Amino acid sequence: MKVYLSGEIHTDWRERIETGAEGLGITFTAPVTDHAASDDCGVAIMGPEDDKFWHDRKGASLNAIRTGLGLRQADVVVVRFGEKYKQWNAAFDAGMAAALGKPLIVLHDPEHAHPLKEVDAAANAVCETPEQVVDCLRYVLTGKLPG
Amino acid sequence: MKVYLSGEIHTDWRERIETGAEGLGITFTAPVTDHAASDDCGVAIMGPEDDKFWHDRKGASLNAIRTGLGLRQADVVVVRFGEKYKQWNAAFDAGMAAALGKPLIVLHDPEHAHPLKEVDAAANAVCETPEQVVDCLRYVLTGKLPG
Amino acid sequence: MKVYLSGEIHTDWRERIETGAEGLGITFTAPVTDHAASDDCGVAIMGPEDDKFWHDRKGASLNAIRTGLGLRQADVVVVRFGEKYKQWNAAFDAGMAAALGKPLIVLHDPEHAHPLKEVDAAANAVCETPEQVVDCLRYVLTGKLPG
Amino acid sequence: MKVYLSGEIHTDWRERIETGAEGLGITFTAPVTDHAASDDCGVAIMGPEDDKFWHDRKGASLNAIRTGLGLRQADVVVVRFGEKYKQWNAAFDAGMAAALGKPLIVLHDPEHAHPLKEVDAAANAVCETPEQVVDCLRYVLTGKLPG
Amino acid sequence: MKVYLSGEIHTDWRERIETGAEGLGITFTAPVTDHAASDDCGVAIMGPEDDKFWHDRKGASLNAIRTGLGLRQADVVVVRFGEKYKQWNAAFDAGMAAALGKPLIVLHDPEHAHPLKEVDAAANAVCETPEQVVDCLRYVLTGKLPG
Amino acid sequence: MKVYLSGEIHTDWRERIETGAEGLGITFTAPVTDHAASDDCGVAIMGPEDDKFWHDRKGASLNAIRTGLGLRQADVVVVRFGEKYKQWNAAFDAGMAAALGKPLIVLHDPEHAHPLKEVDAAANAVCETPEQVVDCLRYVLTGKLPG
Amino acid sequence: MKVYLSGEIHTDWRERIETGAEGLGITFTAPVTDHAASDDCGVAIMGPEDDKFWHDRKGASLNAIRTGLGLRQADVVVVRFGEKYKQWNAAFDAGMAAALGKPLIVLHDPEHAHPLKEVDAAANAVCETPEQVVDCLRYVLTGKLPG
Amino acid sequence: MKVYLSGEIHTDWRERIETGAEGLGITFTAPVTDHAASDDCGVAIMGPEDDKFWHDRKGASLNAIRTGLGLRQADVVVVRFGEKYKQWNAAFDAGMAAALGKPLIVLHDPEHAHPLKEVDAAANAVCETPEQVVDCLRYVLTGKLPG
Questions:
Q1: Chain G partners of D140 at a C-beta cutoff of 8 Å?
Q2: Which of A92, B58, D33, D145 has the most CB atoms around it within 10 Å of its CB?
Q3: Among candidates G67, E122, C85, which has minimal Cα distance to D91?
Q4: Whole-prediction pTM
Q5: Could you report the predicted ipTM of this complex, rounded to two decimals?
Q6: What Pfam family does this protein match (any one) (chains A, B, C, D, E, F, G, H) (predicted)?
Q7: Is H124 an interface residue toward A (CB < 8 Å)?
């Protein structure tokens, strides 16, 4: 099974899921999680831009190759919303996953439940911890419940 | 031409676009913009819920009929990001529009350009004012530039 | 808006929805609700069969033209589960609607909630009365809540 | 070849098919067949619900990841209707399989033929025993008839 | 409802269906039924060819615009197999209709049933007379049986 | 029938086709054929760019709304290759039409036949004059040959 | 590369292609070519039918699992038209291949070119001998021409 | 990852990309780059044509098997525009890639930026050197920037 881990890149949630899911035979993919590389990839490779808007565009378009492939080739998409930043790209990925008919697991703290209600309504599961995501993935693959 | 106006519901941007586009023969659709009705529609029709999470779910799932039809039947999707709230549903709609191959016009202030770079990169046009959106729509339909 | 009314054919639920929705501009479609005609249409038109299995097959295949078109051309699909019969064709229609990405409203009494949980989980709204279905449709089209 | 075995979970029909098909190189998938785990998986992983309706919803949505992947990745879908329960989820799976264009084999006793006529009409084969399903699969793969 | 009448062009079956279906609001489309025009359209418009193979190719490719649109825009496809010629284009159209998920009605004499068994197996109805096709279309639209 | 007229914008071929096709009930669409407006639309509406590359990008992305809609909503796509310029956008449109399964008519002088062989091979008809295109469209709609 | 070899089952054309293509790494699939098994598979497995029409239907529907998978999973579809029988199923397969966007190679003698002109017009290559088909496949895979 | 290298065949850009990407685990595909074989493949295999137009058609249709498969099976499509020839087939491939939703990298010298603006606007990245393409591919796969 291929699982794409989209969204927040400043905590260790991806590592916790990957560690917890060891032995299940899952291949995890993700966006580039090096914030600086992700922001500057376009100009670093294809040349500088004077205008920050186009600096960003070059990077975002290049990153879209990786994120688009990750999403489209995934069997399950997990999207994490964290504490900081606008995270509109996470919600954008969730919208793409929904339109593509991908099973969707959303991971966020309860205090974000109201503004995320449209995203949650498109999801198969809404988790609060990475360990719950692992339990979901294990159950989906093996039928085994935790504990 | 059918244009779906997604996103922020607290300013008059939809009215400004609809007024500016008079005479172009465009049919505009939109989500329910009455915030209270949108939040409570599920329980108002199908009965109350003790748990706010499911109160929200019932409403979001019902609203998804309207927003899903608006998006899927649109020739062009306009998504507005405003000043307040998380607006993850706006970014979610943009992601759906992108995955469905819908032409996308994004409307936001310049200070949101960086966190919206992934959304902007999927758009055909990035506007700062509703009047620019009208100019885009008029040009697309008639080939006429403003002024 | 086109709404396909699938499922149970022995009570007046379709009439109650159509009457309640007057003035909303909805076009309703439905399977043939004359039970005898629906069962015998194949042999009545294309000749008798000795074997009841093929008698049924001829009718079911012919009816599938109408039900398939109704489902595929609908903007919203409503599926009603009633008190009698196995109603596997209603659940089959719900499965087709889900796979086709059609917004789905399910209508059934609360005592059927557990065996219908997979169907309900694919639905945008789960109603107990035809009047709630009308309220959902009115809200989706006009944004107005009942009362 | 991947075959998804959907439907009834209280008899040994899956084992009989898997045993009979040994050596054919078929990978079989199935829903979680532990009835209690299947019913309670949502609350066991993501926390309890006071309301049985949402208890069921959480489980059904989580199970839909597995059943949806099983269906969508299958080359052939087999759906078994048994003696007990409403089995609307089996008919729902059959409807999804039909809409997705999956070859469909239906397995049921002759006395259910009339209420299943719409499902049977969408199927490539209607079998009465698991051994007939095996014979169908062997023939499809090898061209060899039984006996 | 749009119905595409594909196949044999040497008898009056299209007229009999169109006459019989008067008042049902059906729009019928068909290939060009003038045999000479159909054979020579390519070279008549785009210039002569020395080689009969390319003479035929030019015509067949031009005719494919009309037949392709007729098939793709139809709600129901009727394919008639007659007494003369190879009629491989009729079977080709039936294959396209099947792959496109179009409801299919096949019209042929009983003596062709065996060589047409694969086509019939993909059809919703197999008729022997144009009048039976009319009865099928009337039933699908109105629910009324003949007589 | 909707026909999209893509490609060269410096001769009167569109007018000749539209005049010749009068009375056939065809709706013609086209890109913006005012060369200056087409080049500058992006910056004229959304603000100037220092860099010609992004000046062009803004315009091309905005024009893609119109050309994309024209292509996707067309029943038939006509692509004209003329004498001047690289015309890569015409070939790009032809590639999109082919991938979308749109019937394609290509219009060009014989001396371009070799470099256009891949485009021609994807077309239903290859014409040398606008009048031949009209004859093709008339034949497709009415079955009548010229003369 | 996967190549589906559809059509005529009474000469050794499949063997000649498979032998000629040795070393190219192609996986060939085909319908069941045992004529008697193909005709009787349905009743042999699922029980006899009094009516030859349903005897044929049972077999054709079961065979459609294999032929449908072969077609849908193929990278290239080869369809052979021979000297005997109506071969409507071969043309039906060609129609399906065309609608599914599969590259199509047609193999037939020159005297069938006129009645096969619609099928040929949908094909990438029209061959007269199995050896030409092998040469086409070798060229497609390796870029090497014969001789 | 599979990358299709479309376009210009007279310089060593493919070799530079393949060499630069060694160790990344990419499978590269490409059209037949032997110009003479590509032009003559149709007649060499299926027999000569008197008319150059059909000579070209036979080859182009056969080549379309390889180019179509390359495009459709690719994860990323790279299209190179060089100095010579019309290169309409390169732009045609880019249009197909865009319509198929494939991530697209365009490679051309800056002086072609204006006539390629529609193609560039559909691309995720616009590069001037093969080495930049390699850097893009490495970044997409590993997240590592050059230098």
A1: 62, 65-66, 69
A2: A92
A3: C85
A4: 0.97
A5: 0.97
A6: Nuc_deoxyri_tr3
A7: yes
